[in-house]
Design brief:
Helix content: 55-70%
Structural class: mainly alpha
CATH superfamily of the largest domain: lambda repressor-like DNA-binding domains
Order of helices and strands: HHHHHHHHHEE
Number of domains: 2
Strand order of the largest sheet: 1-2
Oligomer: single chain
CATH class of the largest domain: Mainly Alpha
Shape: elongated
CATH topology of the largest domain: 434 Repressor (Amino-terminal Domain)
Largest sheet: 2 strands, antiparallel
Strand content: under 5%
Number of helices: 9
Amino acid sequence: MKKIKDRHIGRNIRAIRQLRCIRQETFASQMGIAQQNVSKMEKKKEITDEQLEQVAKVLKTTTDAIKEFDENAIINNNILNEQVNNYNINPLEKVAELFKELLLTRDHEIQRLKEELDEYKTGVRKPVKTKASKLAAAKPLHSIDGNGKKVAVQ
């Protein structure tokens, strides 16, 4: 592990927390500490190994990744892929997932509109299943006999 000059663990923690879109309040809750303590921790150049291990667990990364984190490298895009993979951050996956859902919804709507257009062109409407049509198709429970009395249908 190479030594990074002027490393600031608190800033690294803050940067990783922000990259993960975790608010200080949420992070504090997961750490079991007050939000003010998170603020103080993020201002410290060094923290205890025990605290660092707990932070790494909450941020789902390693202590080495926190120690070696280089915000400038991400900004300069020198080692973006390596650091993103180390922290399991992949916003492109989220965007792709959302895009797939939108396309699927659009495909269903296009299919529905095509069917409606075909019905309009042919003049043949597919039967629409409504509650009333289901009730009409149901077997009656009673009938009226010759004397006008209700009789149970068997």
